[in-house]
Amino acid sequence: MSDVVEKTLTALPSLLSLDSQSGAGKLSSTSKLGGLIRSITELTSKHEEEKLINRELAAIKEQVSSPNTSMRQMKEIMVRAIYCEMLGYEASFSYIHAIKLAQQGSAIEKRVGYLAVSLFLNESHDLLLLLVNTVLKDLQSTNLIEVCMALTVVSQLFPKDMIPAILPLVEEKLTNPKEIIRRKAVLALHKFYLIAPNQVQHIHSKFRKALCDKDPGVMTASLHIYLQLIKENPDSYKDLTGSFVAILRQVVGGKLPVDFNYHNVPAPWLQIQLLRILSLLGKDDQSTSELMYEVLDESLRRAEMNHNITYAILYECVKAIYTIYPKSELLEKAAKCIGNFVVSPKINLKYLGLKALTYVVQQDASLALQHQMTIIECLDHSDSIIKRETLEVLFRITNVKNVAVIVEKMLDFLKNVFMEPDILFLLYVGCFPLLSDTYSPNNEWFIQTMNVVFSLGGELMHPDIPNNFLRLLAQGFGSEEEEQQQLRVFAVDSYLTLLESDTAHLPQRFLQVISWALGEFSYLKDGLEPCKVTKLLAKLLDERNVTSESRSWILSAMAKLSAGPGAAALALQVSERYSSSLDTVLRQQALELLHLSQDPELHARVLPHGAAWDSFEVDSSLSFLDSFVSEALSQGAAPYKAPHQRQEELRQEKALSLEPYSISLPVSLSSCSITDRQSPTLLSMSSSLSGNSNELKAGTLKLEGVKRVWGKEGYLHQQDAVEEAAQVEEAATPALPLSPQQGGAESQQTHGDLTVVEQEKQKLASSLFVGLGSQNSTFLMGKSDSTSQQFRRKTRAADSTSSGVSERSSSSSHSSCSDFLHNNLLEDSQNSLNTQKIGVSNGTHEGPVTQSFQTTSKETSPFLDAGMVLVQPCSPQTELRDFVQPGSSGITQTSLRSQFPPELSQLPHSDISLLSSDHSLSLSACRAYRDDALLFVIILSNLKCCGSIFETFSTLIQVASLRGNALENLPAHSMSVCWYALLMEEPHTQVTVAGSVSYRAVPGHTQTLQFTDKLFLTDFIRPLTLSTEEYGKLWLSFSQDVRQNLKLIQGEGDPLRATLSALKEQLQLHIVDIIGSEGIVACRLLPDSPCLLHCRIHGGSLAVWLRSPLLSLPDCLLYYCQKTLEEC
Amino acid sequence: MIKAILIFNNHGKPRLSKFYEHYSEDTEQQIIRETFHLVSKRDENVCNFLEGGMLIGGSDNKLIYRHYATLYFVFCVDSSESELGILDLIQVFVETLDKCFENVCELDLIFHVDKVHHILSEMVMGGMVLETNMNEIITHVDAQNKMEKSEAGIAGAPARAVSAVKNMNLPEIPKNINIGDISIKVPNLPSFK
């Protein structure tokens, strides 16, 4: 069959190129579409096409608005409009006509109308509301095809708010005698579930009915829903495992009609779907997994390797086997299967085999060992996708022994294909440092590798990499001081060598790293004259392609070195040249350099040695300027006004906008301004807070003649102050530079050996896979730890920074703050991309620090955001030191409750439940309902130790405050209670709270206890007391509304009253008034988002109408109302 | 889930684009261009999977494509779809087109964009695979086309009469699948209501 297609399509180019006119003409000489397409194929330039299409669109516009156009013509016009839209030209005027066509046309025109609508509009388009009635009508139509069309369009796009209107009709279709309708209805419900899960909550039983449908097609469709449901919550569907297994067994056993076969394989897509569901169900669950061993085995056996699609089934099977609770016999077979994939000559299978390997090596690294030769071959494969997968496999099997070889291969890969600005490569460059400093065999190797990474990565590299590298250089690996010094000396050596050769090709980021490292550490090297380094730097400074940002890095490095005798003269020379630079930042730095080089005493005070990473103080309140300011004020200067204030005044005074003049200062001013210790970019960001940003904005004001308090002297004064805060060391005496090649000789050699010769390959293989064989188990453990190791190191860095800050409680350093935040963000992005950490600070001495963090997080966020996927600094994280006391092993509710402080025990609260525990710490939680917040109370019962605690919270909750007792040291055997006041920022039916407690049982050994808990919307709902009049006013002002019919509680007395009081009881609502068969109810979501309910008895059910200013609050609340009433 | 289905020719001219998730007009065009850029520079003897389409949703997504003479058929899918399964789905799609148009060629796709869309909507609905059996798909499409012909004959008749006739003519879509005794029985659903 495919041959026929191939042949036909091969014949096509000749048809198109040589004979396009007659070909098109033959097909539709009369139609206007034909004409349009014919003229388009004749065109040669994009510009001509644009002109033609615009003409065409104008013609269409005229035709559609003419009253004489029949529906039939309209259909043809729509096809043309679809064509134009596909080419990327907007035809928005035709949207309304597409809807009209769907509305009024006969079936065949309707079909085109629906098609046009589904191609033109999106779910949030306003015009879509006009379609609702049409869909309603067609769903009720007796014509099968119209119903099908309506269902198709519903599953493509439907406004979320209108789902209740058509839901009953779609539900009804589930019992339609035609299987195609049942099938489409199931998929439409799947769509509803995706966009508004709460609204289809009540029809889950109908999904089950669809699963048992006598038609396999409907059953297949229902699997889409189950896959989604099980993905979200596997525990609730464990009972269905048996059914899925039974279905799969029958499919595999050929019990389906032959019509379902595809290339003699029974319903392959159905099998794939079932295998995916089973693997989700069996994950981490031994008893469930046991149910499926047999059928998985059979699937493996039955799927003979004969067609593409059987490989698809095999692949899913293998994945399932490795996901569920392991069974050695199956694992063996699966491993064999993967082997077949990997060695297959078919490239697609090779790809999947490698993919499976990346997945499997984490559990069983020996499998990679079996296929080492194939992996080596894949490394040289011509397909870059295959190469990338291979590297992925290698990345996962990295350990201390093979890291050098693997990194070498990766670098090769990057060198070859680096021209593509592909983000994946950034990823690779990004994962290097992780690789390097986790497993780094020695310092020389590390520096060498980083040099290569920097020169390859260039400007594409994520800015974190140089920053982290510099931090590592300054702080070391946490290893011995001597080793650190060695590392630095080696870095200095290799950089000097680099600078002596041609520097033109080095990326700017690398130059910045080099100059910083030289400025900081060249004194460590014995016998190295500072003037030699300064000379090299000065040479660099004069290079043409060096950007001004890099120049300012270089200048600050020179400032650090300028104390030496020879260097001073050179510094003088340089500063003279740059003191007339057009770039104000450079000019200023040149002047600083001049001052520092002439005044050794000042230099020693401002830039002392070896204090590279100590936190330094920045008085962000600029209190040292107070006397200056008051003096200026007394002499008649105008008081300082904030930029926005000035802008305001400006607007009042003059109607004329002076915008074009406002950017009078060079933009690069913000790039770097201050002689900095660690990273000019970072510091300048924060320093702009006080100085530069005002300066920039004030640009407009100069024209106004407003006298600036920050005059010339003031500005300089401030600079001096910052300089004082910074510190530097002197340059040391020169030494012989060591060739960087020497250190890397070993790895280079290995690389050189890698030739086509088979033996060489084997050698490479043995070096790559070293450490995978004999001490397999130990390696595996180390492997699984790799991320957490990384994580831990970062945490330590964060610790030290923050403690450094807290010691100086009055003032804090911006740069260390931002680094600190930076660290957290890195951790975040490693741990979980979607959750933000919201940390809470506790304890007396840390209070002020939190404050400053909050400010800083705002200031630095633009920088941190750059490239940090999905994570935003929203709240700072600090540690909470807490000391927990031991308790007896059997903790009873009462004993826990007795720990409650009096203000808590007054409040209504839920039962205390155990969240998690280990041998020395047990963690329980309960929820207490305070009027203004939900209190999440955590009770820590401990046996022996003390520790610090990190808490993590889900994004959707806002942490309002924290109370709890924090102790510096802990007596044994007691409990500690702390609690968080939580608010819900955005309504959700439930949110997960996740966190961890870290404590130190033995000094230096940190243990972490993870916990999660679910909080429900109802926990955040409080009654809203108001009068009927107030209710009336509020009702009209809210925009979001939802209506639904709910079950009525039938009991003695008034059913409305009974129902409402049940709701009040369960959901904390406030009943405002009940008149006759109507009742109004109000509540609020913490902190203060009201939601109003209007309830009316209507034909045996309760018609509820909810309104709220918040988008999804009515939906979520409705869900709970429904649930409550169902349960009654 | 299938995020998008794109067909373009060797020069990157779009022949069909169907998005199952909402993107702005500009983004859609960019996706088409980017996808073409990625796919077109790949050799014939490399694998049919691609990762790293940036615009269409990041690393979770894959491009699965097949190249037939002058046309590229590209499916953008997320991780919940099987790579090889989709590859065969493309094959089914092309074979179906071939049957419906009797030796399909690029021109068929150009001049009958609407029909191609109709065929596609019988295979994939809202991003979910609906039907993979070629005969079934053709049956459904034919039923609709028959309706077109019957309608053409009575074009002037009032709409009410039309739908009455339609209902008479097309009482039921012929069914290929016999689900008599050997259909799947789902045993023991415990909490079934």
UniProtKB/TrEMBL annotation, chain A:
Record's keyword annotation contains rRNA processing: no
Keyword list, A-Z: Golgi apparatus, Membrane, Protein transport, Transport
Biased composition (Low complexity): 800-818
InterPro entries the UniProt entry points to: Adaptor_Complx_Large_Subunit, AP4_complex_esu, AP4E1_C, ARM-like, ARM-type_fold, Clathrin/coatomer_adapt-like_N
One record GO biological process: intracellular protein transport
GO CC term, one of those recorded: endomembrane system
Membrane topology: Peripheral membrane protein
Superkingdom: Eukaryota
Region annotation Disordered: where it falls in the sequence: 780-818, 835-857
Polar residues bias locations: 780-790
Compartmental location: Endomembrane system
Gene3D superfamilies reported for this sequence: Leucine-rich Repeat Variant
Ranges of residues in domain AP-4 complex subunit epsilon-1 C-terminal: 1022-1126
Family to which this protein belongs: Belongs to the adaptor complexes large subunit family.
PANTHER family xref list: ADAPTIN, ALPHA/GAMMA/EPSILON
Function per UniProt: Subunit of novel type of clathrin- or non-clathrin-associated protein coat involved in targeting proteins from the trans-Golgi network (TGN) to the endosomal-lysosomal system.
Quaternary context: Adaptor protein complex 4 (AP-4) is a heterotetramer composed of two large adaptins, a medium adaptin and a small adaptin.
Protein name in UniProt: AP-4 complex subunit epsilon
Species: Denticeps clupeoides
Gene that specifies this protein: AP4E1
TrEMBL record, chain B:
Membrane topology annotation: Peripheral membrane protein
GO cellular component: AP-3 adaptor complex; cytoplasmic vesicle membrane; Golgi apparatus
Compartments reported by the entry: Cytoplasmic vesicle membrane; Golgi apparatus
One annotated GO biological process: intracellular protein transport
Primary localization class, coarse: membrane
Gene3D superfamilies for this protein: 3.30.450.60
InterPro entries named among the record's database cross-references: AP_complex_ssu (IPR016635), AP_mu_sigma_su (IPR022775), APS3 (IPR027155), Clathrin_sm-chain_CS (IPR000804), Longin-like_dom_sf (IPR011012)
SUPFAM superfamilies noted in UniProt: SNARE-like
Keyword Protein transport: yes
Domain AP complex mu/sigma subunit, residue spans: 1-147
Family the entry assigns: Belongs to the adaptor complexes small subunit family.
Known function: Part of the AP-3 complex, an adaptor-related complex which is not clathrin-associated. The complex is associated with the Golgi region as well as more peripheral structures. It facilitates the budding of vesicles from the Golgi membrane and may be directly involved in trafficking to lysosomes. In concert with the BLOC-1 complex, AP-3 is required to target cargos into vesicles assembled at cell bodies for delivery into neurites and nerve terminals.
Protein name stated in the entry: AP complex mu/sigma subunit domain-containing protein
Organism: Denticeps clupeoides
Lineage, uppermost ranks: Eukaryota, Metazoa, Chordata, Craniata, Vertebrata
Gene name for this UniProt entry: AP3S1
